[in-house]
Amino acid sequence: MASPVHVFFLMVFALVSPSVSFAGEYSERAELEQVLADVVEQGVDRDWAVALLNQAERQQSILDAISRPAEKTKPWYDYRKIFLTDKRAQEGVAFAKQYADTLTEVSTSTGVPESVITAIIGVETFYGRITGSYRVIDALATLAFDYPKRSPFFTRELENFLILAYESGKDPLALKGSYAGAMGYGQFMPSSYRAYAVDHNGDGVADIWGNAEDAIASVANYFVRHGWQPGALVVVPANYDGASSELFEGGLKPTMTVGELAEQGFAPHTATDVSMVATPLRLQGEKGFEYWLCLENFYVITRYNHSAMYALSVWQLSQEIESLAADG
Known about the structure:
By secondary structure, this protein is α+β, with helices and mostly antiparallel strands. Helix content is 52%, strand content 9%. It contains 16 helices and 7 strands. It has helices at 4-16, 31-41, 46-53, 60-66, 70-73, 76-83, 86-98, 100-110, 114-125, 136-146, 151-168, 190-196, 212-225, 258-263, 296-304, 308-327, and strands spanning 134-135, 176-177, 235-240, 256-257, 266-268, 277-285, 288-294. The longest helix has 20 residues, at 308-327. The termini are far apart.
C-alpha cells in the first residue's frame, strides 16, 4: 500500500499532468528511461518516480563546487585548519557529553571509539549544524546528467535515493544535503543509507537527518562493516630518509608491512609491530613534509571519504576531543 506521502505526491502531480509524463528540466534525457526501469524493478511506482524527477532542477553551483573540492586544491597545512579548530574540538566535547549514553552503548557494542564517531560527525556537519542546503534530488540529478566524469556513480546514487525516498515515505522534495547529495548528521550517500543506516532507538525509521542517536549508530555500523579493528592502531608518525617519491604512489590501501617499509627508509617514530601492513603517507606541512604510517584502521576511515587528508583530520580531531574531555 502506498504511504500517505506517496498518495499526496501523486495527487498533486495528477492535477498538473494527468498522464504523469516527463515535463521537467531533464525530460529529454534518454538516461531517464534506464533510471526508471532500474527503480521500478526495485518496487518503486513509475508514476511517483516520474513526478519526482520532473521536479529536479539543474544547479550550476553544484557543478562549480564539485570541480574544486578542498582535498584537491589545498595542501595539508591549509586543509587541516578547516577542521582542526578549538571551536570544533570544544563542540565535539559538548556533543559527546550530550549523547554520552548512546556513544558509550554504541562504542561498547561495535568497538569504534566514541571520539572517532564524534569526530566524523564533527568534520562532516559540525555536529549536525551544517547538513547541506541543496535538495538531494537536485544535487543527484545535476551530477548524474551533467557531470560526465562521475555520471555512473551519481546515477546509481540517484536511483538509490528514489528507492530510499519511496520506501521510507519521507517527502523527497524536503530532503536536503550537500552539493554531492550526502545527507544527515554523518552525510551518508543514498546507497550508504540503504546499506548501513541503523534504527538505534527502535522507532521503525533509521533517521540520520533528525535523530543523533540513529546517526551515531549508523556511523559506527559503517566502520564495522568496512573492517574496523577494535583497539588497533590507526596512524603512526614516521621518518623517511629516502629520496624516491614512488613509495607514496601506491594508493590508500595498505599493501606493505611496517618492516618492509622500514627497509626502504620509512620508519616509525616509536616501536611498532613490523608485521602490520601500512600505507606510507607524505603530506606538506608548514615546516616541510610530514610522514605517517597509515594502518588498517586508517584505511577504514578513508572508506568514509577517499582522502588521506580527510582521514588524518578525523583522527587528529578525535584525539583533540579525547584530550579536552580528559582535562575536564
